Amino acid sequence: KKFAREVLALETLTGIKSESEKFAGANDTYGVEAMMQDGKSLQFGTSHNLGQNFAKVFNIQFTNKDGELEYPWQTSWGVSTRMMGAVIMSHSDDNGLVLPPKVAPIKVVIIPIYSDDNKDEVLEYSREVYNDIKEVTEDIEFDDRDFVSAGYKFNEWEKKGVPIRIEIGPRDLENNQCVIVRRDTLEKNKLPVSNVSEYVQNLLDEIQKNILKRSEELLISNTYSVDSYEEFKDIISTNRGFVHAHWCGNPDCEEGIKVDTKATTRCQTEEGKDNTGPCIYCGEHGEEWVFGISY
Ligand SMILES: [Zn+2]
Questions:
Q1: Is there a contact between 241 and 281 (Cβ–Cβ < 8 Å)?
Q2: How far is the CA of 244 from the centre of ligand 1 (A)?
Q3: Do both 114 and 213 map to the same domain?
Q4: Is 98 a member of any domain?
């Protein structure tokens, strides 16, 4: 959860999985769930407390400090390409990828815009800006390809999710400035080149924070709490989202809800256990679980 927040800029829900959703053979399974832009939830990481179950099956033993043979307790931790999927699907927009600066392989791209009669000056000036920024980040690209147009380059780097694009043309050279475009908001700003490296460093932090804030807002605006099955069905069939509801723990109710609505239990958060109420499906005593439509 910490890694998702601080590096991937993803707000998540974490908790324990239900009996039917947990890894077969594990004592307990814990999941990390992220909210996607279409209201579906994506489980992108799980960890399992395997107990001594697999050690016994595979007859794995160790000698403890008293010289006796014992079965070890095992855990299993997994994140996979699903995690990358979560980053792509929750941050991106219609123009392509939006990568959090902390994981973007290229954080800044410089695009010199020139014609035949000012090519050398513009390239030289752009190189200086490049060298300045290189002091604050190594992950910078200088795109001086002369066989594609500037517009083509803008689109291409936008699609690849590069957090900051810097455009430098002959007029910027005259005015000692450059144009900075941030990928998360597509905002464009003119900036004096004298403080460009400091500006870029701050802007990378700001973009990282802004993407996380959007992820938090996405999760909050897609989180619901319901007391009745009617309300549950209504929300799941329209907005999807994370729906907090009471469930008695009986797999028949869980299955019934799934058949009716396609929603499954995503997890039970730590607070969910203490929040009790009647099961939305059968009315028996239940605890709060989070339901959602999963990928
Ligand atoms: Zn029930």
A1: no
A2: 14
A3: yes
A4: no
Q: What is the pLDDT of residues 7-37, one digit of tens each?
A: 999 999 999 999 999 999 999 999 999 999 9
CA angle (238, 1, 161) in 5-degree steps: 70
**CATH number of the domain where residue 255 is located:** 3.30.110.30
For residue 245, how far is its CA from the centre of ligand 1 (angstroms)? Answer: 11
Residue 189 lies in a domain: yes
| Mean per-residue pLDDT of the chain | 96
Strand partners, 63: 69
Under 8 Å between Cβ of 59 and 42: no
Burial class of residue 259 (count of CB atoms within 10 Å of its CB; 0-12, 13-18, 19+):
exposed
The predicted model gives 124-153 an average pLDDT of 96
Together in a domain, 113 and 130: yes
| Claim to verify: residue 212 and residue 137 sit in the same structural domain | yes
Report how far ligand 1's centroid is from the alpha carbon of 281 (Å): 5
Residues with CB under 5 A from ligand 1 (ion): 248, 250, 253, 279, 281-282
Mean pLDDT of 225-254: 97
